[in-house]
Structure formats: structure tokens, C-alpha cells
């Protein structure tokens, strides 16, 4: 129960982590069940490295695991309609070989059509009624072709283990189409134990119980898993062979030991003679030679006439090849002569009613006596026999022998074929499923088509004149057809979710027409080509792809983000390594803002914050205005706010309201006086800072009166000057009209000027064309005249100096 308990515990722990992502967590659930199946089957995969053919193979275990993964991830599809099987769809799974899952409606339609067609064929080809044909009709699984009777057509939706009808599909913590309980199906090889997993698709895993088991030869006994209890100790078998003299030298193996191949000295039946056997052995008559036969196997009869010399010394044995001594009495009819040789007497010589022998009596009258010879009739191995009068053997059949046939099968199912009894002719063909493993990992699902042993001769007591040649060689088997399994195959670019369902033996490569997306050598970008075969791309079904295509070269500028604080882009092309150090200049002002420093980017960013503050300081006075007064900070250039702005010790001139009286105070005292007067020092302007803090006296009042009189006289003079200027200036309407007229004149000029410019441009172009055509024409005429002069000079030279 450890596996089942582990599976339950793992399912609870994983389900709690994904409870908030029920809709978008298909990939998470698939990963969760994959991890669970890996933990369950890890111990089984570790054991398969030392197991034999009788134990479950890694392919069987991976098949069980793939069923669990496909069911949990919702990747099951019906091979009849090729649609995805949803958790709410009623299903049926094959329980014979493939364990594949189909829609219930699809398999019902498939089974009815197949059984009806089989019944129709049987009723038309066999002498049976349509009702009998309908009762015996069968249908096959669409994938593994396992046969089912018509009564086995599924009619109800059951869970995988077959205990619950119509299992619920609204529980997210239970595998779809499962009842959620322990499977409890009987395990393989009828070991007596039951499956401990929760209700699951596919075959049950090997039995995990611990039992005591011995190896094939029986020398070593060990405690092993029940599913792997059949094993080899890898030592010599040493079992006694069928010859009862030698021992098997093979490594500890399953099944019967091979025939003895040793040479040895053997006695005859009476024990008088000894001979060494093993090499070339012949049939009893010595006409047919057999090589490589075991020493304890009887040589088969050749079926030809014996031909050995009889005891009379004149005639040969006319019987078929047989074991044992020939007939002691020669029954050939000959002419007998007297002692002097003058008379000869002939025996009767008539053919008897048996049609095999002649009458051995002297010539006589009347019918001959019945044939006295008794003919033995035996089975193919000679173990069972009986005798009948000569002549009646034609109507006899060979006796039924209870001994098993001694011819070993040559196909791969030799140890699994049900033994058959002694027979004449060829052995019955193997009717098991081939199950030969393809290179892809699937197995052939056809009937066995392996080699067959050489057939025995047919039962024929008296051969005809033209006897058919007995085939003594084995029949070679036919190769398995290409793998017909349907598999999901990825595109040449190995893209996710771009698989297609194809026949396993079809090696055609295809492109999904998506972008390649493979990381480029730069490590920063991805290939934008259409899906193509990658260089050195390997897969479990094609090996190395020869027609591969390299991804594009990255020519983009580098887009890597540098260290925090550096905002300058890299000047190189896209590259996989780290970017070179940034040597750009970084300008940073000092804390007080009086000067600007220029640093190398890598140098400035490599400094700590404290070092950066020290490097940015100009070393001079702060030069920043204090917040509460008009004075500058007296401290050295520093970051942050200026210290103690309320304790400024600069001297400030303080005046009365009329600015007649003045005194010098400290700045901090002036600030306190402004606060006492109800005003904030920050809001007081520079001109009014310290103004009105001293009280006015009598001198201030006299001075105010003189000032007011001067202001009154100044204001009257200003009014007279203003009136005189207003009379000389025109009104606003007149000014507006003048501006409008000036704008109209300017607009007309602006319209005329572009037209004049265009006209001048056209005139210049026309003049240029006319001049170019005129001078071109003149040049052509001059060239023509020049060519004519050259031609005339050539003719005149020919006239003066004719060829001799």
C-alpha cells in the first residue's frame, strides 16, 4: 500500500498549491501529475536494468506513465473521430493489449458496423445461417485489433477499473474518467496480488510485493519484487540435457535447454556395437544425409525404398525406408531348377488382391490364398502403431498419438506457443501476436509471421510413381510491415504545440510556418526565420538531420542594460559577452551649483555614495541663499540644506518707516523682529528687509511733510505734460485704418512677387533649352563636315597610292 498512499499524499500536497488557479493551470496540473508519476515509477525503472524478457520492459512502464500523463493533462484523443476526449465525455478503453481510450458513442458505432460486416461475410461464404453468423460475429479494437464478440459491445460508461458506472466529472481532484478509489485489478501473470494504484488508465504496473524467487537454473534464491521474480543468475545452467549424458553450457536461461551438440560414443539397441555420433547422420537406408542434428534426436525416415541386401544375397528390400532389420524371409518369386538343370519350375506369381504382392505358391488352380503379410501403420513419430492386413492400409488413417510434437518452433514465440500433438505434415502456424519491436519502440500487432520449421512428410503408405519432393528446409518469415502506430510528431524546428499526428513509419519532415524563435549566438535575440531544421538537431525518430539550416546572424545594436546608474547605450553590435566599460563623460554640478564637474562614467558609477558626495564638492563657499534672509551660506560647498539658517550673523541696516533713521543689527535679530511684527522673513523682499523695524520720531514727521509737498507739485506738472501730448497724438481709429492700408499694400506686393519669380524662371529655362539645341545642332553639323573631309582624304590617298 506504499505506492497508493504515496500517490494520495502527493496529490493532496500538490492540489493545495494550485487551488487558486483552476482555469489557467493546465500546464501546472500536467507538471504536477508528471512529477507524481515519476516518483511512483522511479523504483520500477531502476529495476528494469537487470531484468529479463519475462519481466516488464521499460517500454511497458513508460507506456503506463504516458497514459497517466495524457489523462491528467487532457491530451487523450479518440482514434476513431480524431477529436479530443473531454473529461465530461463517456469513454471506453480496450482491456486486451493497447488500453487505448475511445468515445463510447464512437466505439459503439465502430463495433456494430464491424460485427454486422463480419456476419454478412460469414453468411455468404460459409454454410451457416444468418442467425448463427450473427451470433459468432466478432469486432476488433481499432488500434491493437484485439477480437471481441458481439456481446462485448460496450453499452455503459464505466471508470477505468470498471467498478463505478458513470463516474463524476465535477471533482477537480480526481483523474478524469476515474472513480478515485484503489484500482484493485488482478495483476499480470496471475501472481495473486492486486493493483494498489488509484483508478487509472492503461495497464497496471508490475507487482511490487516482495517474494522469494529462484533463478531459471534454480541455484540462487533471493527476495525480489513479485513482478521481477523471474531472473537469471548469469552463471552456467548445468542442467542435464535430453541425452542424459551432457550438461547445458549456456548461461542461466528461461525455457528448455537447447539440444546436445557434443560428440559421443553410443551403443546400439542390443549393446554389441558402439559408434561415435554427431556429425553427418543419415536415414536408416543411408540415402539422405542430415547435418547438425542432436545426438538424442531420431533421424527421420526419407520415404524412399529401402534397397538394402536381404539375407538371401540376391534381392534387395523393396519396403520403404524403415528402422530395424529388413524381413528375414525373401518373398521374391524365382525359377527353381532341378539338380541336373534340365527342368525349371515357376511359382504362381499372380498378383494378389492386396495389389502389393504376388502369390508365392506353386502354380495352382482356382483363386490364390489371401496375402499373409501384415502391414504396420504408425504415427509420425512412430510411438503409436497398429497392424492391418496388406491391402487394407489404403483405407486406414494414422493412429492418434498422445505424444507432443518434437519439432521446435522457429518464431520468437517458441516458449509461449501451446504445444501440439504428434502429426503428419506441417506444424500449425503460430497464432500469437507478433510483438516484434520496431526501432521506434512500438510493437507489431499482426499475427505471427516468423519462420516456420520444415514440415514432416504427409501420411502416404504407398507413394505414387511421381512422388512429390518433400520440403526439408524451413520457411523463412516475412518482415514486419512499417510501423502503423499514430504518434504526435513535432516540426523540424521542435516548436511547442506544433505537433501533428502522423504514422510512425512516415519520416516526412514538415515546417509549422511559425517563426523559428531559436536563441541566436548573441544570447539576446531570437531567430525570425520561418520554422527550419536546426543545426545538429537530433530526435528519436530521425537521428541527425543532414539538411539543416543555420539561424540568421544578429546585426542589431547592443541593447543590454548596463549597471544601475549608467544610462549610456553600448556602442558595439549585439554580442554575447559583457559590454565594455563605459567611457562617456558624465557632467555633475557641485552641491552649491557654482561649477560643473566632468567624470568618466565608469569611474563615477564605481564610487560609493559617500565618495560621490566628496567628489562633487567644489571646495569653495556654498554660494546658496539662505531661506530666511538675503545672505549667502558661509559654509563650504555641501549637499542638502544649509545648516542653521535662523542663526545668520551678518549685519543688516535697519530703518524706520520713512527711512530717516537707520541702525545696524545682526540678521538673526532682524528675523526675530519680523516674526514679532507678524510677518515671515521668507516673504520679505530684499528692499524691505529691515524696513519699518525702528519707530519714527519728530524729525521724521517734518521730513514727511516736505516730501509730500514735493510730490504734489510733481504730480501737477506731470498732468499738464500729459494733456499736451494727447492733443498732438492721433486717435486710435486713425491708427487702425493706417495699419489696414499698409497691410493691403504689402499683400498685393507679396502676391505679385512670386508670379514674377515664376515667370523669370520659365524664361531662363526656355532660353537655356534654345541655346542648348542651337549649339548642339551646330556641333552635329561640324562633326558631319569633319567626317566627310576625312572620307575624301582617304579616297584621295587610295587614288595616289594604288595597291601593286
What is the topological layout?
Elements: H1 2-17, H2 26-47, H3 58-73, E1 91-93, E2 101-103, H4 104-125, H5 130-136, E3 138-140, E4 147-149, E5 210-214, E6 221-225, E7 264-267, E8 274-277, E9 280-282, E10 289-291, E11 336-337, E12 344-345, E13 374-378, E14 385-389, E15 486-489, E16 500-503, E17 538-539, E18 543-544, E19 585-589, E20 596-600, H6 601-606, H7 609-616, E21 651-656, E22 662-666, H8 667-676, E23 691-694, H9 698-728, H10 732-800
Parallel strand pairs: 21-23
Antiparallel strand pairs: 1-2, 3-4, 5-6, 7-8, 9-10, 11-12, 13-14, 15-16, 17-18, 19-20, 21-22
Helix pairs in contact: 1-2, 2-3, 4-5
Pfam families: zf-NF-X1
Domain NF-X1-type: 191-209, 243-262, 312-332, 354-373, 411-432, 440-485, 522-556, 566-584, 629-650
InterPro entries: NFX1_fam, Znf_NFX1
Which key phrases capture this entry?
metal-binding, elongated, NF-X1-type domain-containing protein, membrane, alpha+beta, 804 residues
Please, could you describe this protein's structure?
This protein is α+β, with helices and mostly antiparallel strands and 804 residues long. It contains ten helices and 23 strands. It has helices at 2-17, 26-47, 58-73, 104-125, 130-136, 601-606, 609-616, 667-676, 698-728, 732-800, and strands at residues 91-93, 101-103, 138-140, 147-149, 210-214, 221-225, 264-267, 274-277, 280-282, 289-291, 336-337, 344-345, 374-378, 385-389, 486-489, 500-503, 538-539, 543-544, 585-589, 596-600, 651-656, 662-666, 691-694. Strands 22-21-23 form a three-stranded mixed beta sheet, covered by helices on one side. A hairpin with a 3-residue loop joins β17 (538-539) and β18 (543-544). α1 packs antiparallel against α2 (26-47) and α4 packs across α5 (130-136). It is elongated, with a radius of gyration of 59 Å. The protein starts with a helix and ends with a helix. The model is unreliable at 1-35, 47-54, 463-471 and 537-547 (pLDDT under 50). The chain crosses the membrane at residues 759-777. Residues 715-725 have a biased composition (Basic and acidic residues). Belongs to the NFX1 family. One of its GO terms (cellular component) is nucleus. GO terms for molecular function: DNA-binding transcription factor activity, RNA polymerase II-specific; RNA polymerase II transcription regulatory region sequence-specific DNA binding; zinc ion binding.
